[in-house]
């Protein structure tokens, strides 16, 4: 998986196109395989369109954007009293004792991509690079056997950032052990059912393990609901799904990865341009330019679903579409 930070840090500005121009370029194939664009504002869907093959509402594999749902599942498990918090050590939940820096890895480390595991998906030679895990039958054995990297915590107790899908997979294994339920079934019952989401499908290993590190096939309407719940600080239609404090913690920047790029707990923060200027946005992001953007100051949720997997320009194309979507929305009146 190429680094999305590198893709967004190029000097050339994004083309500023209208939504109609974006639609035309998608239809002609100039923006690759963008499959769906959706937007809601103030809780109401204001735009939805499907492109290319398939029907409106067909599910798309959003790749690593699914990691952000794993962060929500961890928050739910904490709220349910199954996990004591982010400082909990993960190895006791994994039935595979390790010594040294491995034994000190916490839930918070895995959530913020800052554990001691020698694992970097953006470096093909890394022992933990995700494609190496997918070639194995039992992903758990692969992840549990990863060596440690040179590792020092900073004054805040955080390690250096290293993007690691295997670590997020282990988070799902920790949640399974803590709640006594298979990860996807817990997410369905605890998060998706209250939102009225069905049909979501997580990739599995050949041995049947659920890939909590992403690769989730899901509809655009489901993603709009998830984004709205997060924008409402964990509430959906008056029902508390995830604690407010967890949402705040999840969306707190913990690493700066570029001039305007930050990472929280399996959620990204990057600005988007509206008709009045740049707006702060939190995002679920995955390979191919699959993005769910939550834009608080516009009270809006935007979705781009694509199949431009492993294309170097995929994320720039997705951001062009996001910008056009956001610019098409009216700016809320200041209170």
Task: Please render the helix and strand layout as text.
Blueprint: H1 4-8, H2 19-28, E1 34-41, E2 44-50, E3 60-61, H3 67-79, H4 107-111, H5 130-134, H6 139-144, H7 165-179, H8 183-195, E4 201-202, E5 216-218, H9 220-231, E6 235-236, E7 239-240, H10 244-250, E8 255-258, E9 261-263, E10 268-269, E11 272-274, E12 277-279, E13 282-286, E14 290-295, E15 300-306, H11 314-327
Antiparallel strand pairs: 1-2, 1-15, 3-5, 4-5, 6-7, 8-9, 9-10, 10-13, 11-12, 13-14, 14-15
The succession of helices and strands, N to C, reads HHEEEHHHHHHEEHEEHEEEEEEEEH
DSSP, total strands: 15
- Which oligomerization state do the chains in this entry correspond to? single chain
Give the count of helical stretches. Answer: 11
Distance between the termini: 43 Å
Relative helix content: 25-40%
Considering the chains and any ligands shown, give keywords for the structure.
single chain, 3-stranded antiparallel beta sheet, 18% strand, 8-stranded antiparallel beta sheet, 335 residues
What is the structure about, briefly put?
With 335 residues, the protein is α+β, with helices and mostly antiparallel strands. The chain is built from 11 helices and 15 strands.
Written overview of the protein:
The model has no long low-confidence stretch (mean pLDDT about 95). The chain has about 325 residues and is α+β, with helices and mostly antiparallel strands. The protein has eleven helices and 15 strands. The N and C termini lie far apart (about 45 Å).
